[in-house]
Specification:
The chain is an all-alpha fold. The chain is 74% helix and 0% strand. It has one domain: Mitochondrial carrier domain (Mitochondrial carrier fold). The longest helix is centred in the first third of the chain and has 37 residues, at 2-38. It holds the Pfam family Mito_carr.
């Protein structure tokens, strides 16, 4: 019973961390979406972060940077709860790199697949010009116009993308802790945050090509049926290697920062309550 309570508590900490990090980095998510979905040959200026910021300011003002905030909060808090809960449940003190990778890989993959319907709504709401009213009204409109299965559009791509990120992130994060902060050294907020930022940078670079496909699939950017590999090939043929880096700049800030904030909060509270450096 005590163990179950501890696992649930890790989930609550994860949801709280996701709440704080989402509020902090949502503008970067909107900028990234503009760069991925809106930029093309006629809107080449939107391939840069500066051009995308200018576009949002001109068309929607400062409020435009917080498009999709409500579904983002619902989705990220739900995914954060599930991820940290599952990670706490499946991990143990005596494990190796491959076990760390697989534990985080599957925990993130499952949590993201479950919350994909909310992510689809969030993704569309974050694109300037999309008429978002509320979570339930948008869900109802999508269900009527595109069918219930559309809520899992891009789900496989999203699960691969975030699972890959999470697996790499957790391995690098733990290894940096082991190098710079031995278990007997106690808790260090600066080392924890720095480890998260470095791990986030590595994971973001590795997973970003899948983010391009995920965002475009969920905003109906594509009008044909292709496999993931065919989409990669098409992107390369039409946009070159640069096509796989669109939106990378704001994501290189947002993704590491969001995960660092979440892990820092979870680690800090675990240290206060349980006196451990790694409680999951």
């Amino acid at each position: 019973m005590v163990e179950q309570q501890r696992v649930h508590f890790q989930g609550l900490l994860g949801a709280t961390g996701s709440l704080i990090s989402t509020l902090a980095v949502q503008p970067l998510e909107v900028i990234k979406m503009v760069m991925i979905v809106k930029s093309n040959a006629s809107n080449y200026r939107l391939t840069s972060a500066y051009g995308s910021v200018e576009y949002i300011l001109i068309n929607e003002g400062l409020n435009g940077f917080y498009r999709g905030l409500r579904p983002a909060l619902v989705r990220n808090m739900s995914a954060g709860f599930l991820y940290f809960q599952m990670l706490s449940y499946v991990t143990s003190e005596n494990r190796n790199v491959s076990q760390d990778f697989l534990a985080s890989f599957f925990a993130r993959g499952v949590s993201n697949f479950i919350t994909n319907p909310i992510l689809l709504i969030e993704t569309r709401a974050e694109v300037p010009g999309y008429q978002y009213t509320s979570l339930w009204k948008t869900a109802n409109t999508i269900a009527k116009q595109e069918g219930l299965m559309s809520f899992f559009k891009g789900g496989l791509t999203c699960s691969i993308k975030d699972s890959l990120f999470a697996g790499i992130y957790y391995v690098v994060y733990r290894k940096m802790h082991e190098i710079f902060l031995p278990a007997e050294s106690g808790f260090s907020p600066s080392i924890t945050f720095l480890s998260g930022m470095v791990a986030g940078l590595v994971g973001t670079c590795a997973s970003h090509p899948f983010e391009i496909l995920r965002a475009r699939l969920q905003t109906n950017y594509y009008h044909d049926q292709m496999t993931i590999m065919q989409r990669f090939k098409s992107t390369y043929q039409n946009e070159g290697l640069y096509g796989f880096t669109k939106g990378l700049t704001p994501r290189l800030i947002r993704k590491p920062l969001a995960n660092s904030i979440s892990f820092l909060l979870v680690e800090h509270l675990n240290h206060i309550l349980y006196g451990t450096q790694f409680h999951f």
